[in-house]
Amino acid sequence: MLKRQKGFSIATKSVKAKLLRSGFDMQPTKAAYNEIVHFYFLLIAEDPQGISISTKENGNWRYYEILTANHPFVKGFPSPIKRAAIRQAIGAYQSWNSTYQKWLNRPRKIKHHKPPVHPRAFNFNPQYDSGMWKEDDGFSIVLKMLVGDSWKWIKHQYQSPEVPTEWVKCSPRVQVQNGSLWIVFPLEKYIPATGGIKGIMTKGRFRTCGIDMDLDKFIVIATILETNDRGATTEVARHFINQSRHVARRKRNLGNIAIKMGKTGIISRGFGKKVWDSLSAREIEYSRAVSRELVEFANHWLADVISFEYLGNLRPKRGKYSRRSNQKRAYWLKGKIYEQVKRIAYQDYAILTTRVSPMNTSRLTPWGEPVWRGCKFPSIPIEFDGYRPGAALVATVDGYKAHSGLNAARNVALKAIKRHLSEVTLNQKSLQQ
Questions:
Q1: Which of 185, 205, 228 is the last residue of a domain?
Q2: So what's the pLDDT on residue 311?
Q3: Which domain holds residue 424?
Q4: Are 405 and 214 spatial neighbours (Cβ–Cβ below 8 Å)?
Q5: Which residue would you say has higher pLDDT here, 338 or 326?
Q6: Please, which residues have CB within 8 angstroms of residue 127's CB and are 6 or more apart in sequence?
Q7: Are residues 424 and 288 in the same domain?
Q8: Does residue 1 lie in a domain region?
Q9: 356 and 384: one domain?
């Protein structure tokens, strides 16, 4: 585990791999681990004062380790797994206590109901701290497991993606899923401290990547705006990500599901599971692909901040099942892309992500003037009057013409900049028509 250093923050992620070794079962180890967790949970519930004491003063998990040093129940367990179980029990108790305090302070208008009780059993996967594993070479690892009545070192093989050199492996956790063993390695990495978005935008020249997300043709429309210390802003790059093929496949699958649902009349449990699983997996994979492409674009053009719109209140419109289902997944995809971009951009390139209000990002130009919106540019000035939601083009009488999504992306970026700079002017000559 990395130690904190001045001028750096620590980014974390994880890598998961399947353990390969026949003839050994992890269930006894998992059962023993959960028995220790349950033992310490009950002890903490009786004596919770140790949680509030600092570890340096022999408090927190050290308090309970010292308290049970000679207890016969935990005497035969290795110290590393015992300490991991104590920390797990502390977390479980704090979770229960938080729920219990909410129950105590519940409003009177809420009907009386029973208080939350202590968990009767736990199903945690064992945490392998230092001393419970050794000889990890990237392809095999030796784990200490409970075999019969004794703890033995067992070697396992595993295959995982290559870990970049800048990431450091931490103590793993072993998961038992559907009869298979999986090992999860937390990864940590030093990232230079950025000082936050305010620090970036008030120091001098910086670049902002504005993002507009649509439901149909273009999932992402991005623009890179460069701003100097005087607030003068120019556009240096733009990028469109087309999702037409992805949307067509989704609509086709949802339409087929709707037709089959209409034919059966009765929707049983597990109906169309294979199709649903395939559709869900494709949505997740597409969100990762779009997020990675967007982050690489922002990094290529040296962006310091990526700005999105707040779109948390989107709801499907009334209509047929397939139409509502398509909109529901399109909205989910928007939120997932934001989450993925925020994580990837910070972990890989220390690029920060923010969100702004979507108000008037499509109805106004970057200079605050109302726009005409339609499908074909008017030929005479008198026709520059009207707004058609969803149309692809925007324009003004003054000669400003742009794609509606690109216009919105510029406004999204400018809103993020204006939070910290009072005077910001976008150079219209830098906008290529």
A1: 185
A2: 77
A3: 196-430
A4: yes
A5: 338
A6: 33, 81, 84, 85, 87, 88, 171, 173
A7: yes
A8: no
A9: yes
pLDDT digits (tens, 9 = 90+) for 124-151: 999 999 999 999 998 999 999 999 889 9
Query: What is residue 111's three-state secondary structure?
Result: coil
Tell whether 10 is covered by a domain.
no
Do 226 and 170 belong to one domain? no
Is the pLDDT score of 298 beyond 90? Answer: yes
Mean pLDDT of 212-239: 91
Same domain, 44 and 129: yes
Instruction: Inform me whether the pLDDT recorded for 384 exceeds 80.
Output: no
Whole-angstrom Cα distance, residue 10 to residue 190?
Answer: 5
**DSSP-assigned letter for residue 420:** T
Q: Is 21 exposed, middle or buried (0-12, 13-18, 19+ CB in 10 A)?
A: middle
The tokens describing 211, both together, are: 């993002």
Does 380 have pLDDT greater than 80?
A: no
Q: Looking at the domain assignment, is residue 12 inside a domain? A: no
For residue 286, the model assigns a pLDDT of 94
Cβ–Cβ contacts within 10 Å for residue 426, how many? 21
pLDDT of 315 reads 66
Long-range contacts of 199-207 (CB under 8 A, 24+ apart): 200/304, 200/305, 200/352, 201/227, 201/305, 201/417, 201/419, 201/420, 201/421, 202/420, 202/421, 204/228, 204/229, 205/229, 206/304, 206/305, 207/236, 207/301, 207/302, 207/303, 207/304, 207/305
- 177 has pLDDT over 60: yes
Q: Are residues 180 and 207 in the same domain?
A: no
For β-strands 305-309 and 352-356, DSSP reports them as parallel
Question: In Å, how far are 77, 223, 405, 417 from 430, measured between CA atoms?
Answer: 69, 12, 17, 18
